[in-house]
Amino acid sequence: MAFDGYYDFYITSDDYDWETRILRKLEAKGLRGYHRNTFTLGSLKSSSRLNGIKNSKVTIIGFVPLSKTKSSVDKYLASLSFEFKGELICVQITEDSVIPDEYAGLVHYHGSDEEGLCCRIEEVIKSLPSGGDNFSMETRDVVDSSRPQPLEDFGPLTDLRIAELARELGNDWSMLATYLGISLAQQQDLRRDHQICSRERNQEMLVLWRKRDSCSPSEKLRTLMTALEKSDRTDLKDIVSLWQ
Q: According to the model, what pLDDT value does residue 71 have?
């Protein structure tokens, strides 16, 4: 099969065995897949995931029961799929698997019949033009960026440091936003309002979180460092850990 610069699908799941089985079944159909074993050695996982989303026609996410969920990465990847207007295929692997509320309204598939699932995925992929299809999701919450910041003591999380962090964060902002509890709809609003300047988008996201989180400045700092670590940005976590 000729490769035109795009993968047919990107597949991921906290259930590695399921991910591997579906990957092999789809590749046996002549489809080209992007997965964790094709990540670029030495690169950040977040960068590799972003590459998979941007260069695949569809993103396949196999959701597992809450007891087996290891992180919020799959939820973050679904958010990225919307950002780059890709086709998202949510699979409920078992009856007790949980698909996040943000995607409950989308068509999703059950994973009990793996052969049938792969046939349906193949049909979706073959129905799309090269590079994926465009679709949009109606936003539900609105980020109110018109309100002035309250005169509040944010401790080490000063406006200057927030601005510096926003500049260095780059395209990893969406994963960090997810770990900080920023909803998918709010992220969509931030993308819409800041299509030109990514730094301003990142800064507004951080300010939104800082203002909304009612815990103490020291607790906010710990929350931010934990979120940065989960986002594979330990370089930024090390910088934030020096803030006093």
A: 65
Q: What is the pLDDT of residues 52-100, one digit of tens each?
A: 788 888 889 899 898 887 766 666 666 666 555 567 888 999 989 988 7
Inter-residue contact 130 to 6 (CB < 8 Å): yes
**Quick one: tokens of 46?**
């977040």
Cα distances (Å, whole numbers) of residue 190 to 25, 46, 51, 139, 162 = 38, 20, 21, 11, 16
Q: Which helix (H) or strand (E) holds 34?
A: strand 33-34
In the chain, the amino acid numbered 234 is T
| Calpha distance 130→230 (Å, rounded) | 33
Number of H helices, E strands in the chain: 10, 5
pTM of the model: 0.52
Q: How many CB atoms lie within 10 A of CB 223?
A: 16
Cα atoms in the 13 Å half-sphere on the side-chain side of 73: 23
90 vs 68: CA distance, rounded Å? 17
148-154 LR contacts (CB < 8 Å, sep 24+): 149/207, 149/211, 150/211, 152/211, 153/217, 154/210, 154/217, 154/220
- CA dist 76 and 74 (Å) reads 5
The residue whose two tokens read 């090269």 is 130
DSSP E strands, 35-98: 56-63, 87-92
